[in-house]
Amino acid sequence: MTLKFDLQPSPAPRSDAEREAVLADPGFGVNFTDHMAVATWTAADGWADSAVVPYGPFQLDPASAVLHYAQEIFEGMKAYRHADGSVWLFRPEKNAERFAVSARRLALPELPVESFVEAVEALVEADQAWVPAGGEASLYLRPFMFASEVFLGVRGARKVQFCVIASPAGSYFSGGVQPVQIWMSRDYTRAAPGGTGAAKCGGNYAASLVAQAEAAEHGCSQVLFTDAVERKWVDELGGMNVYFVTADDQLVTPALGTILEGVTRDAILALAPELGLTPVERRVSLEEVLEGCRTGAITEIFACGTAAVITPIGALKGLDGTTAVADGEPGPRTLELRQALLDIQYGRREDTHGWMHRVI
After folding, report:
1. Which of 82, 157, 258, 353 is deepest in the core (most CB within 10 A)?
2. What are the tens digits of pLDDT across the range 102-116?
3. CB atoms within 10 A of CB 350
4. Are 241 and 260 in contact (CB under 8 A)?
């Protein structure tokens, strides 16, 4: 049975002037809308207490299981306002399916796909005035689930909280698309076979933060991880998937297994043939990447994810020096793919894949 998320309106929503001030300069992940969607699961009764309620803090007991064993998962997605004022989601069922995969891996209850989508839709409908218009602005949506049972034993929790919050987001590249430098981590790994690499859980990101700090110390925006076994195969970035464009028009990305099955990643694989690229999923060694950059066999590298969509990579940096990617500027294939995806999301290009999901 699909959960219903009826609206319990906030008694103190922000004024039009306050909201417009936020939308004029939203940043990312710092301002939140007036409501949130919630539901609770218990082992005895299943899913219940679903609603859209006023945004506010949770009251957590110090012995809540999530605070001790990190049993939690989350998703990241966006709502887009089209030129005619309508509001759309991009492939919400894919986020719902991945949410269920993550839940299984973290011993959490699965939320039915239909209920996940209903929760997101209900929140967007309630806070539709917060969906920005113009440029690459959007309403960022964060569904998440955590173990709220008050219990210190090591087992799957018998009480769980689900929630969706929303935050207006401006253009990731407000001054135009700029290439970034990436730090190649030698001391840290992100995920191991049999681990939680394919689940979107906070622990994966927490484990990447020290390597991310190391990257920042070397003037880099992100960190590139290799596999945890041989330390030679490219894994993914701290929070994004990675792609390589070759001189013979292949679009190569590391195969799934210990990496997250990105929704943007999957869309790029589908778009590639339409733009004259052959998509290839396989193991890619770091040695192949560096040599390919030096010889010209690899002409472009980019990262992809929900927040930035596609980010060009201009150089790979490590203790042994810096390897430039072509001339260090955003490559034509990177920009072409980025524009094609954005045009679909914002309704400027025909959606032949059936990816867009209208809410308003």
Report:
1. 157
2. 999 999 999 999 999
3. 8
4. yes
* Two structure tokens written together for 353: 């894949």
Measure the CA–CA gap between 167 and 163, rounded to whole angstroms.
14
| Per-residue confidence (pLDDT) for residue 173, from 0 to 100 | 67
CA distance 309 to 263: 10
Predicted confidence (pLDDT) per residue in 321-343, tens digit: 999 999 999 999 999 999 999 99
Return the CATH superfamily for domain 180-345. Answer: D-amino Acid Aminotransferase, subunit A, domain 2 (3.20.10.10)
pTM of the model: 0.96
Q: Give the domain ranges of the chain.
A: 16-169, 180-345
* Nearest by Cα to 93 from 72, 116, 76: 116
3 state DSSP class of 221: coil
- pLDDT number for residue 318: 95
In 3D space, the residue among 319, 290, 312 whose CA is nearest the CA of residue 218 turns out to be: 319
- Quickly name the fold that domain 16-169 has: D-amino Acid Aminotransferase; Chain A, domain 1 (3.30.470)
